[in-house]
Amino acid sequence: MPELTMIEAINLALKQEMAADERVYVLGEDVGVDGGIFRATQGLIEEFGEDRVMDTPLAESGILGFSIGMAINGLRPVPEMQFSGFAYLGFHQIESHASRMRWRSQGRFGIPMTVRMPYGGGVRALEHHSESREAFYAHMPGVKMVVPSGPRNARSLLVAAIRDPDPVVFFEPKASYRAFREEVPEDEEVAEIGPAQIVQEGQDLTIVSWGAMSRRAREAASQLAEKDVSVELIDLTSLSPLDYPAIAKSVSRTGRCVVVQEAPLTYGPAAEIAARVGEEAFLHLKAPVARVAGPDVHMPYFAREQAYLPDAGRIVQAAEYVRQF
Amino acid sequence: MPWSKVGPKGAIPHLSILDASGEVDEELVPDLSEDQLLQGLRTMLLGRRFDERRLKLQRSGRIGTFAPVNGQEAAQLGAISAIRPQDWFIPSYRETVAGIWRGIDLADVLIADAGYNEGVSIPQDAHDLPNAVPVGTQMLQAAGIAYGARRQGKDEIAMTFFGDGATSQGDFHEAMNFASVFDCPVVFICQNNQYAISVPRSRQTRSETLAQKALAYGIDGVQVDGNDVFATFVAAQKAVASARDNSRPSLIECVTYRLEMHTTADDPGRYRDDEEVEEWREKDPIERFRNYLRKRDLLDDGGFQEMEEEVSATIDAAWKKAEKRIEELGAVAPLFDHVMSDMPAELERQKRRMQAGGSPGVPSDA
Ligand SMILES: Cc1ncc(C[n+]2csc(CCOP(=O)(O)OP(=O)(O)O)c2C)c(N)n1
């Protein structure tokens, strides 16, 4: 199996889906001739032409509204938002239309659209290029919210998203685009959207994370292993639907839970997960659920982004807190 | 033919005064003193050399990514020099030359480039907004600022800068429409540098000109040779007067070219060929202005060399100052400053927890 980076794996998924299904279209700013500013769409325009790989005018509302129309009329658009921080100009198209069309039309029109967007910090970028606002989309009824953590699940989840009959917001942790490689099968591999991945089994403590934070959770787990703390690691890969049975099952066994999110603390997905654990595993809990998150501030300019971002040290500290509670 | 007509049915006036060889239309050339002319050239040169230095600093990892101004100096200077200090400057993210004209501290620019929020340090009496990175979004604010000025009887107008790509955003159209409906004294400066990253102007719109979009909103639209500092200045002066005297907004399309990469993260070789770039180099706004000054005996090669040296020393000094400050700033991470006017108790608590080495949501007395 070839070893791919996440960006290469995303590229592979797009290429294979476009080849397999002529209804699949890619559109966005710089996705054609330039191959996408991160090169996710590299080579697509050469292979599939500019009618299916569309360099659009610079307008996020345009890209998303147009995609919704394409989806209504038989196509499977995969629009790219250059950064999640610029998707707000088109946010209303997702909230007001993509998420509601199936419901509004009483099942007549679905929106099989996958909105790809790089999110998150760690790449020394300018303002608006580093935020994690997955809560906005996970909060919306009618939309799936998928966040891969590595090359292999990025590929298999993206394929699943493109084939999904409902709109999927696909958050790509840009810090992980080229950070590491994984074996990715060349042959088709499709994930199921929803089920969490148990990355590592353990007895003492459950750590739940997603996206770029999954790497930091792993790092923390190995630091904890050195202190003889056995960690069960859960990588959600999907925030909506949320696999709370998997979380509850794990925490029912370990009795302790740390949730790691890159986003600001308040009203983030970690709060929802903590509430679910409280509902589903209350009698098994030996400590309150701890949330390791960013503070409720704007992502600082890049010199301080690591000061903002949760790291293994903070995760270990939270683990100690729930263990000693 | 300094004034000509372009656009559908020739509805859009086009202005050029200074040609590539340094010849001018004597009737239209603005009446500027020798001092003003030299100050103008210095500002453009400083902008260009500053960005060349930033590129080196970026390549050696001292600062982060930024958007070079190279090629657009005349468009920015011509426009910005038509407003007064009390008028408002509402930039996007490429306005180095306009910023220099407004008096921005180059060291501050470098401090922000190095990733420190403290580099954004706007004097209390300045009417200059910080960069707006989301493309095409600040023009509505410019219209609102202008309305605020008019309603409060303040002798101020607003001038906002953006690119050709920005004209595809709905916000751009809303801005012109609001400005028109509410008689806002605002001037919209579109720097049509032919590209939005890799996407050529022809892919943004099938309109013959960008300036003609103004007509749909009932405001004035004009196109100028944006590499001609005189044409840009004259058109801007006219637009500024119309804003100031009649609260009439206008749109100026400056036809120019980005000679460098979009930002330091971009590789223009992927979407345009060197020939095209070379053609535009022939129309270099600084060379052109310098030719004019040379022909008028206002600046000989020796004088230009002196200007180069002074500019270079200014940049050296700015970097030296910035380096020192960056070192000081490296020791602190004031994540919580300026988020709110008053820090709520919850933020205080998060701050305390982080200062103790923990997470904002985890009790630190564990
Ligand atoms: C709303 C938004 N979408 C996308 C981007 C990413 N981006 C930054 S600059 C740029 C191109 C802008 O082109 P143009 O408006 O012509 O201005 P220029 O950069 O050429 O000066 C893009 C797509 C952004 N900053 N904001």
Beta-strand level of the residues of chain A, as a percent range? 15-25%
Terminal CA distance of chain B reads: 78 Å
What's the number of helices of chain B?
13
State Rg of chain A: 19 Å
Unreliable parts of chain B? none
- Which oligomerization state do the chains in this entry correspond to? heterodimer
The CATH homologous superfamily name of chain B equals Thiamin diphosphate (ThDP)-binding fold, Pyr/PP domains
Q: Please tally the β strands of chain A and state the result.
A: 14
Task: Assign the CATH architecture of the largest domain in chain A.
Answer: 3-Layer(aba) Sandwich
CATH topology assignment of chain B: Rossmann fold
Strand order of the largest sheet of chain A: 9-11-10-13-14
Task: Characterize the structure shown.
Chain A: This is Alpha-ketoacid dehydrogenase subunit beta. Chain A: One of its GO terms (molecular function) is oxidoreductase activity. Chain A: Its cofactor is thiamine diphosphate. Chain A: Pfam families: Transket_pyr (PF02779), Transketolase_C (PF02780). Chain A: It comes from Stappia albiluteola. The complex is a heterodimer of chains A (325) and B (366). By secondary structure, chain A is of the alpha/beta class. Chain A has two domains: 3-183, Thiamin diphosphate (ThDP)-binding fold, Pyr/PP domains (Rossmann fold); 196-323, Rossmann fold (3-Layer(aba) Sandwich), CATH 3.40.50. Chain A has twelve helices and 14 strands. Chain A has helices at residues 6-20, 44-48, 60-72, 91-98, 101-104, 134-138, 151-163, 213-226, 244-254, 269-281, 305-308, 312-324; strands at 3-4, 24-28, 53-55, 76-80, 114-119, 144-146, 168-173, 182-183, 197-200, 205-209, 231-235, 238-240, 257-264, 290-294. In chain A, β2 (24-28), α2 (44-48) and β3 form a beta-alpha-beta unit. In chain A, α1 runs parallel beside α7 (151-163) and α9 crosses α10 (269-281). The model of chain A has no long low-confidence stretch (mean pLDDT 98). Chain B is α/β, with parallel strands linked by helices and 366 residues long. Chain B has a single domain, classed as Rossmann fold (3-Layer(aba) Sandwich). Chain B is built from 13 helices and nine strands. Chain B has helices at 34-59, 73-80, 96-102, 106-113, 139-151, 170-181, 201-204, 213-216, 229-246, 274-281, 285-295, 301-329, 345-355, and strands at residues 3-6, 12-15, 88-90, 158-163, 186-192, 195-196, 199-200, 220-225, 250-255. Chain B has a seven-stranded mixed beta sheet with strand order 1-2-8-9-5-4-3, sandwiched between helices. A two-stranded antiparallel sheet of chain B has the order 6-7. Chain B is globular and about 75 Å long. The model of chain B has no long low-confidence stretch (mean pLDDT 97). The structure holds thiamine diphosphate (TPP). Thiamine diphosphate sits between chains B (94, 133-135, 162-166, 193, 195-197, 258, 262) and A (29, 58, 60, 82, 86, 89).
